[in-house]
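Lab channel / #folding
Pinned by the channel admin:
"Please post every new chain as: sequence first, then the structure tokens as a reply. Keep commentary short and put observations after the output so the thread stays searchable."

First post following the new format, from NK:
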Amino acid sequence: MSCPFPLSLFVALGLLVVAQPGQALTAQEVFAAFSPSVAVLEVLDAGGRQVGSYSATQVGTGRFVSVCEVLDGAAAVRVTLKAQVMEGRIAARDRERNLCLIQVDGATAAGAVLPRRMPVPGSRVFAISNALGLGVGISEGVVSGVRHYPAGDYIQFTAPISPGSEGGALVDDTGSLIGIIDYRRRDGQNVNFASLAEWVGDIEKRAADSAEILQRYDAARALQQQGQWSELDVLATEWARDQPDSLDAWRFSVSAARGLNHRDKELLAWRALWRINPSHAETGAGLGYVLLAGGQVKEALELAKVLAAAHREYAPARWLLARAQHSSGLHKEAEVSYREAIDLDPWLMEAYQGLAALAQLRGDHATAIAIWSRIAGLYPDAPGPRLGLVQAYLSAGKAERAYSVLEQLPEKDRDSAIAWFWRGYALARLERPEAAMQAYRASLARPSEAKDRAWAGIGNAFYGLKNYPEAIAAFQSAQALNPSESAWDYQLGVVLKDAGRPAEALTIFERLVARMPEEASHWRQKGFTLAILGRSADAVPALERSLQLDPAQAKVWMALIEACQALGRREAAHSAYEKLRGIDGTAAEQAYRNTLYPYEENAR
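Reply from TO:
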């Protein structure tokens, strides 16, 4: 492919550095020759603040190339080349190949020479880039191979790169540019990729050919930044219908669904992304998270197994496996997976949280507290670990200690919505419902993406006071803010049932068991509600299903005994009583006195 910039210009400026046949350059020589063509690329927000530091490779007078992905949402870009700081602007985008041209009017040097040959696997290469934002540097490796993807061939190489390397130069040992560094697979050691440098000459033409798609992308991006989720949903839906294999269309669909709290629609979009790109680890993890959040634990577990096997070094895949195992009751396996995730990424807080939750499940609150205390000590200015410690103390029944930790939060976090939420939770545990409601309302008055949780806290406080109308209203508010959260449906159903409105409660529980048929508590409440309605014959199978899923529910056994007795099924009632005796002798004795004995007494 021809070079779009005159080769004679490079030669005249003395920038054409090519070794003679059989004479490879040293790393020092490559860096000295090529580093003047690699710049630090700063991405700025609307306020002029830096939001990212990456790399850009000069490919002509005033022309630089970098990856489009890091430029998404940039209000402005700034290029630093050989200590000269210059403003730049995006001139053309080839989003399919993730290559963008940046025009920098102050850059007068000619830049790199574009190649005329494909790299050979096993040949030496050098990555010259702004790795980790530390400035332009060099690393050495080899070409692992040329990999085939829908957008074209990519160079896989082993020269180490890091975040910030994107847009840097991949150079061979003759000093020729052969690729633009694109990304690294986080689930492998030095599994890195670069797009072909020869593609640079195609950027403007491909950008012109895809102008309509780019306009659609820009419109979607603007709606996303403005939080106009309904409008974005309409645009993304139409886009995905026109181009069902467009990754951008489905990514915007995910964003819109999240903004609208439409979990089913978000799941649909993640499934489409996974269908289009099943080798992408981050997509698989995103699908798995949504499956777990929606209670589809079995599917999430199977996906996590596949993902963890295919991407052994990718910590989020291991965490997803751990979380799915955790939700499936495979606690020993989950603990192993959590620890493996931490081995892969020692900063993966969710894995520590999982270990702490497992410790709490087995009643080892001291271990959970120790885990969070250690992390909070390592990161004294970070609110997350301290809030984890708060929850550990609450689980241990130490609400006063939890409240004390909240009061010791850094000043910038002490007045946040989440801090006020946990104050409300702690105060509720301290049996101070009025103070708890004040704290929850303080949380609602501050910016938060989880206002539904504060309303649920208020609902629980009113429920504890047996103020059912106010509790119902609060749970309805939580439900309206987050209709996909089954917990708010469940709690609203419980309050309606106890408030003497069992018919309304039954509608909710029937919906819950249809959506999450493996959840014992939903079957339990359906059985309780049917019994209240006098429908004992329907209550029995619901209660039995709940006990199949979780046999250690004494109250459910007692309700089953009562329902069987009400139907005149004496043998079934006695059979349930015997099973209850093996689980909870005290509850069995109570069931016998209240339910079985009166019938036996009357029989005499």
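NK: Residues 81 and 150 are 34 Å apart (CA to CA).
TO: also worth noting, Confidence is low (pLDDT under 50) at residues 1-22.
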